[in-house]
């Protein structure tokens, strides 16, 4: 799934397996300088951590940051993560 700020790839867990979701974040140099990339990574990691807290299956979630993510604030990144996680149907019903 894609959004102007980031793309999200989710791999479902095998059946009957419990654990925590694994989160990976990719930020290319197009996002900005190292300070900007790391700030964007931290913001997305925190947004995904809070969104995926109720998930008890070991999903593998990879967020690929788009260049616009470097200038986005935390609220915009959190909304993008929320939208993509809901589209991927990772959250328990």
SSE layout:
Blueprint: E1 6-11, E2 22-26, H1 34-51, E3 60-65, H2 74-88
Parallel strand pairs: 2-3
Antiparallel strand pairs: 1-3
Characterization of this structure:
By secondary structure, the protein is an alpha+beta fold. 35% of the residues lie in helices and 18% in strands. The protein contains two helices and three strands. It has a three-stranded mixed β-sheet, with helices on one face. Helix 1 links the parallel strand 2 and strand 3 (60-65). The mean pLDDT is 93.
Key descriptive features of the protein:
about 90 residues; alpha+beta; Ribosomal Protein S5, domain 2; three-stranded mixed β-sheet; about 20% strand
Largest sheet features: 3 strands, mixed
Distance between the termini: 20 Å
CATH topology call: Ribosomal Protein S5, domain 2
What is the helical fraction, as a range of percent?
Answer: 25-40%
Assign the CATH architecture.
2-Layer Sandwich
Got a strand count?
3
Mean pLDDT: 93
Poorly predicted runs: none
Q: Give the class-level CATH name.
A: Alpha Beta
Work out the strand percent: 15-25%
Cα gyration radius (Å): 13 Å
Task: Trace the largest sheet across and list its strands.
Answer: 1-3-2
Counting DSSP H or I runs of 4 or more residues, the number of helices is 2
Quick take:
By secondary structure, the chain is of the alpha+beta class.
């Amino acid at each position: 799934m894609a959004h102007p700020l980031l793309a999200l790839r989710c791999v479902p867990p095998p059946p009957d397996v419990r654990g925590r979701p694994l989160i990976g974040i990719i930020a290319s140099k197009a996002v900005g300088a190292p300070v900007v990339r790391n700030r964007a990574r931290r913001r997305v990691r925190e947004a995904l951590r809070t969104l995926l807290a109720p998930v008890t299956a070991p999903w593998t979630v990879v967020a690929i940051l788009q260049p616009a993510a470097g200038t986005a604030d935390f609220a915009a990144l959190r909304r993008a993560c929320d939208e993509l996680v809901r589209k991927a149907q990772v959250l328990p019903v």
